[in-house]
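Structure ticket #2291
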Amino acid sequence: MATPNQWAVREVAIATFYDLKTGKARAQLTNLKTSGLENSATTVYAKGGRGNAKIVGFSGERGGKVTLQDAVFTNEVIAMMTGNDIKKGSVAVYQKEALQVQADKVTLAHTPAVADTLISVYKAEDDGTHGTEFVKAKAATPTTGEYSVSGKVVTFKTGELKEGDTVIVYYQAKTDATAKTITVSADKFSGSYKVILDCLVRDTFTKQDYAAQIVIHNAKMEDNWKIEMKPDGDPSVFDIPLEILKPTNTQEMYTMTIYDESALT
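Resolution: structure written out below.
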């Protein structure tokens, strides 16, 4: 079949990012909600004569933007937008527990990341807020207003707290080695990538579908992005804005090819 001269599009693209230095694929997004391509340029005019009418126009500042909106969050893409690599391994994460006292003790769910070290300990008020603060005992046996900790067990002065009293404990516990950490640094910024957008178009004459591939040779990830967290409405989406740049070795900023996938050799 001949590829179409007129076509319609009603499908989101699949976006693939390639490293400009190594040429290797870095990430592919298959769950996009929207994908768009916007061309831009600036035109200035020579004006004169009676009425100061426009006489001739000069175009320049060719540019473009790619706007991608992902239905899910991909660690690798977020890392690309921060300019940092993903760190994999055990880290200390913050914990808060509200525990009921039994026999002058409470038992934590996890072992503190730093042995026998807590951040803060409070007796809970009836409304669940912080009440009296306890400090770590300097001696082996805690006195009034003190606690000692060994492993997961936190011990208070005998009789200072009643059975069933609630204490609030803040501390850090270690994750396992599969944890992934994404870092935003003051001195790191997002990079540039070759971006491939694959989508489907429909021939207006034959009503058959064809593949369309847009190759953007140099796209700079913008550094302004956000992650929204809210308790209602649709799940949060991730916007990935990119600015199309001119490559160093060609005037082509991007190409779009419409082809028949079944005819690939």
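Closing remark: The longest strand covers residues 53-70.
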